[in-house]
Amino acid sequence: MQIARDILLRSYRSMRTIRDFEERLHVEFATGEIPGFVHLYCGEEASGVGVCAHLSDVDTIASTHRGHGHCIAKGVAVDGMMAEIYGRRTGVCRGKGGSMHIADLSLGMLGANGIVGGGPPLICGAALSHKLLKDNGVAVAFYGDGASNEGTTLESLNLAMVWKLPAVFVCEDNGYGEATASSYAVAGTQKARAAGFGMPYFECDGNDFFAVYEAAGEAIAHARAGNGPAMLHVHLSRWYGHFEGDAMSYRANGEVAELRNDHDCLKNFRKSVTEISLLDESSLDGIDASVRDEIEAAVVAAKAAPLPEPEDLLADVYVSY
After folding, report:
1. In a domain, 247, yes or no
2. Which range of residues forms the domain containing residue 86?
3. Widest pairwise Cα distance in the chain
4. What pLDDT score does 319 carry?
5. Residue 261 carries which DSSP code?
6. CA of 166: how far to CAs of 48, 56, 134, 145, 233, in Å?
7. Is position 83 within any domain?
8. Buried b (16+ CB within 10 A) or exposed e, 164-192
9. What number of other Cβ atoms are within 10 A of residue 90's Cβ?
């Protein structure tokens, strides 16, 4: 598998941006300045980026409560996201959505979603639009192992197959539905669930960008060609709790430390591309520095931005046709 240099650089930058964005939020949330809940995507970067590397602005995605990574991978502006999380008027959704409801329809980002299993039905609608409009678009739903148990998800798998929709269902299996291990709460396998609907199934290691990129490419190409939907099962791990403030008492001692040391998708990426001279360390270091500056500027701007005004409550409620 060969990947163009510009795609490699762009993908590394996206993964680094997600990592630094989330690590900075972990620090900032502890100050008490950020309202609401925050769910971090650290450790899962290769999944969102590996999938979205095959998508354009025509394509649509629906996210989860853990949506920052998907937003960045789809191209949503970091400064607008940071302002939104701080509840500021300059945010992507004018400060009224917060962390769990960031959306940018101009980029095909239908929104993060606090409803477990809320995304799959949305992308069935989006995929139907792509099919009827014949715009060659594909709709992608990201959801977790916990959401794979929801009726909305199973009904969406069925509907997508019945209507032969250009849809891809990406199960990001991080091993926990909140604080419950998927080994306890999820009966059978994701492969069996796909097979139950006659849906093509792809599986990959979410700690390996190249594995995700290849599997996602096959699944998305299948859907884009008019062959109907596909499921992509990504095995990965989250480094932080279900939400910021989660004590993670349900995780084994040393579990997260081992993940950071041995299963870091960014470390794996750097090792892979530098060992065979696809990219050099100086180029990657330059991206790291640029991203740090971008995140710092976004935090400073967000803290200085104005809060929504009372009249903003009535804005964006109804669509004007």
Report:
1. yes
2. 5-293
3. 57
4. 79
5. H
6. 18, 14, 10, 22, 17
7. yes
8. ebbbbbbbbbbbbbeeeebeeebeeebee
9. 18
CB 93: neighbour CB atoms within 10 A?
Answer: 18
**DSSP secondary structure, 180-223, as one string:** EEHHHH--S-HHHHHHHTT--EEEEETT-HHHHHHHHHHHHHHH
pLDDT in tens, the chain (321 residues): 789 999 999 999 999 999 999 999 999 999 999 999 999 999 999 999 999 999 999 999 999 999 999 999 999 999 999 999 999 999 999 999 999 999 999 999 999 999 999 999 999 999 999 999 999 999 999 999 999 999 999 999 999 999 999 999 999 999 999 999 999 999 999 999 999 999 999 999 999 999 999 999 999 999 999 999 999 999 999 999 999 998 899 999 999 999 999 999 999 999 999 999 999 999 999 999 999 999 999 999 999 999 999 988 888 888 777
CATH of the domain at 289: 3.40.50.970
Query: Does residue 17 fall inside a structural domain?
Result: yes
CA distance 137 to 123: 11
Query: Residue 198 CA to chain centroid, in angstroms?
Result: 26
Token pair of 131 as six digits: 């099919």
What letter does residue 151 receive in the DSSP assignment? H
Do residues 188 and 199 make contact, with C-beta atoms less than 8 angstroms apart?
Answer: no
What tokens appear for 87 in the block?
């509840």
Encoded tokens for 130: 């792509």
**DSSP-assigned letter for residue 169:** E
List the Cα angle 177/179/185 in 5-degree steps: 50
255 falls within a domain: yes
Query: Nearest 5 degrees, angle CA 233-CA 173-CA 112?
Result: 95
Question: The whole model's pTM is what?
Answer: 0.96
Q: How many separate domains does the chain show?
A: 1
14/4 Cα distance (integer angstroms)? 16
> Residue 73 in contact with residue 51, Cβ under 8 Å?
yes
3-state secondary structure of 62: strand
